[in-house]
From TrEMBL:
Binding site for Mg(2+): D35, E228
Details of cofactor binding: Binds 2 magnesium ions per subunit.
Matching PROSITE patterns: UPP_SYNTHASE
Record-level GO cellular component terms: plasma membrane
Alphabetized Pfam families for the sequence: Prenyltransf
UniProtKB keywords: Magnesium, Metal-binding, Transferase
Gene3D superfamilies, per the entry: Decaprenyl diphosphate synthase-like (3.40.1180.10)
Subunit note: Homodimer.
Gene of this entry: uppS
EC number(s) given by UniProt: 2.5.1.-
Record-given protein name: Isoprenyl transferase
Length: 260
């Protein structure tokens, strides 16, 4: 009986939040730091905390459905930084990457998927199998007749992304015959932005981080300069639709100043 009462109360609250968002200004691009998988697993009583990565990877599919329902067409999911891949226990990293291959790359690349997948990060630091799976997913969804885009930030470092963007821009301009002085005089922020992983997409309007941590961890340092930030104590696999709707309600209630 208590389960039924909780389910009814949850449904009522979710409908109330949806009603509050009717006609509200919603983000075009939501970026998510999917944090707290291992802590969620320990809290849930699993003997092996690494199982949290499976639940976390599977949960991304569900959150993408919420975004699609609300017309949010761009999502960037922070899966793992370069430091995560290089400094954590090798068994844990192997498990995480296996989940990416099995759950994210394969499931989101199925024919019925509406999302175009864009890997974002240093694919060279990934094992061949993970790199291959992401490339296949990218190619399989490249021609989807859809406006929905998912950036998978894996092997990602925000400072390195900016450095690589500038390096790529300089190489491009050099091939076109421009001198360093020419480039320095004409360089613009928009030029650099065209060489970022998210080139051609709007900057994130809202960045959500789960697990209670209040920091960006190098995530989208350039793109998130004017983003609204939302931190929640909920661990990523336990991030419910009402938690997502609350984040959107908070975003809709803010007056964006864009640096002012």
């Amino acid at each position: 009986m208590w389960t039924t009462v909780k389910s009814t109360a949850y449904s009522f609250y979710a409908r109330r939040l949806n009603a509050q968002l009717a006609g509200a200004s919603l983000p075009r691009h939501v970026a998510i730091v999917m944090d707290g998988n291992r802590r969620w697993a320990r809290q849930a009583g699993f003997a092996d905390a690494k199982i949290g990565h499976r639940y976390g990877a599977e949960h991304l599919d569900e959150v993408l459905q919420w975004c699609a329902e609300l017309g949010i067409q761009h999502v960037t999911a922070f899966v793992a930084s370069v430091d995560n891949l290089q400094k954590r226990d090798s068994d844990e990293v192997d498990n995480l990457l296996h989940m990416i291959e099995e759950v994210v790359a394969e499931r989101l690349a199925r024919p019925s998927s509406i999302w175009q997948i864009h890997p974002a990060g240093r694919l060279d630091v990934l094992p061949d199998s993970t790199r291959h799976a992401l490339k296949l997913a990218e190619e399989a969804t490249r021609h989807n007749d859809t406006a929905f885009h998912l950036n998978i930030a894996i092997g990602y470092d925000g400072r390195e992304e900016i450095l690589n963007a500038i390096r790529s821009l300089l190489e491009e301009q050099g091939r076109a015959g421009h001198t360093i002085d020419d480039i320095a005089q004409q360089l613009t922020a928009d030029q650099i932005a065209t060489h970022l992983y998210t080139s051609g997409q709007p900057d994130p309007d809202l960045v959500i981080r789960t697990s209670g941590e209040r920091r960006m961890s190098g995530f989208l340092l350039w793109q998130a300069a004017y983003s609204e930030l939302h931190f929640t104590d909920v661990y990523w696999p336990g991030f419910r639709k009402i938690d997502f709707l609350r984040a959107l309600r908070s975003y809709a209630a803010r007056h964006r100043r864009f640096g002012a």
